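Quick one, tokens below. Sequence please?
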């Protein structure tokens, strides 16, 4: 065995030990990382076939981002795959796949946010409707908490972009779910997304007479372990579906306003989705967005959209290709938490 190999092994071991020291969803350390997309893919094929219609990340995928300094991955998945029938048992295959991700993340010091990527629905029916009662949503998350009780390793993102229901209806569902989880004894970190698309740009805009700022101002958690999750894309219209980007300064006022709101009302924020293509214009905006969420008194962290080995030529992909870093990584890496 060569001395060069031994030296590399020693360095790798030191890095692994150092990263593990950062482990913890609830220890107050910065949660900075990426969305690891794939398990939510092909939502029209439900439940679909694992590794044909959708994919979970590998230990290699996690290791790459941990080596860059990430401390968190947000793992989107579909509720319909995790629980095939409302109020029923959790699906064994999905739970095994998620468990493998959590197990691979643990020694790397990565907090795993389990993100129900359903837009406020189950098989297209809104939560809180006759078809999908609130109790079914509470049931799902309390069962997930029983399956993943280690609060140091796993956090729960209750619902991605709940656009299928009015803001006050989602706020009521979210409050009830936080209460149900705490009553069940779960002490995991919880992330509650704002209504509609959870956009920073419309946090104070009223829809049917109420804004996210009004609906979530009094969101409470007896453990103080709930973050308010917001999203913000950089293109005109804020959809994240085009390749042009607004100027960096365009975002100053909206981020200052939501930061002031969180500070005044005792909330902590998490930027759960944001991202840009790798053009020079967009990288400048991406860099500025990262500076805007670096204030630790109100921002607990962020997850860039998006990693995942099935993205192909997707412009916002931050996943390496053929061993080469994505252009966005040169901007993101200096802001990662480790």
């Amino acid at each position: 065995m060569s001395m060069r190999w031994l030296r590399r092994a020693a360095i790798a071991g030191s890095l692994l030990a150092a990263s593990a020291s950062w482990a913890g969803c609830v220890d107050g350390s910065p949660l900075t990382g990426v969305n690891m997309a794939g398990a939510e893919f092909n939502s029209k094929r439900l439940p679909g076939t694992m590794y044909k219609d959708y994919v979970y990340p590998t230990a290699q995928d996690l290791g790459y981002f941990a080596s860059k300094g990430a401390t968190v991955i947000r793992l989107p998945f579909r509720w319909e795959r995790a629980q095939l029938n409302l109020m029923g048992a959790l699906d064994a295959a999905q739970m095994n796949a998620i468990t493998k991700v959590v197990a691979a993340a643990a020694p790397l010091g990565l907090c795993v946010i389990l993100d129900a990527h359903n837009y406020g629905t189950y098989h297209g029916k809104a939560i809180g409707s006759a078809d999908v009662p609130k109790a079914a949503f509470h049931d799902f998350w309390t069962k997930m908490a029983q399956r993943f009780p280690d609060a140091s390793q796993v956090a729960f993102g209750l619902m991605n972009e709940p656009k299928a229901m009015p803001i006050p209806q989602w706020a009521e569902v979210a409050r009830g779910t936080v209460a149900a989880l705490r009553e069940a004894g779960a002490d995991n970190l919880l992330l509650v997304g704002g209504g509609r698309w959870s956009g920073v740009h419309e946090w104070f805009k009223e829809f049917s007479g109420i804004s996210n700022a009004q609906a979530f101002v009094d969101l409470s958690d007896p453990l103080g372990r709930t973050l308010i999750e917001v999203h913000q894309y950089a293109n005109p219209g804020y959809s994240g579906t085009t390749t042009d980007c607004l100027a960096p300064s365009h975002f100053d006022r909206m981020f200052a306003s939501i930061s002031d709101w969180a500070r005044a009302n005792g909330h902590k924020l998490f930027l759960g989705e944001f991202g840009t293509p790798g053009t020079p214009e967009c990288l400048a905006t991406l860099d500025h967005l990262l500076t805007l969420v670096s204030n630790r008194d109100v921002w607990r962290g962020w997850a860039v959209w998006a990693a995942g080995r099935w993205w192909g030529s997707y412009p916002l992909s931050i996943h390496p290709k053929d061993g080469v870093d994505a252009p966005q990584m040169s901007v993101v890496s200096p802001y990662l938490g480790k």
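The first strand starts at residue 31 and ends at 36. The longest helix spans residues 3-20.
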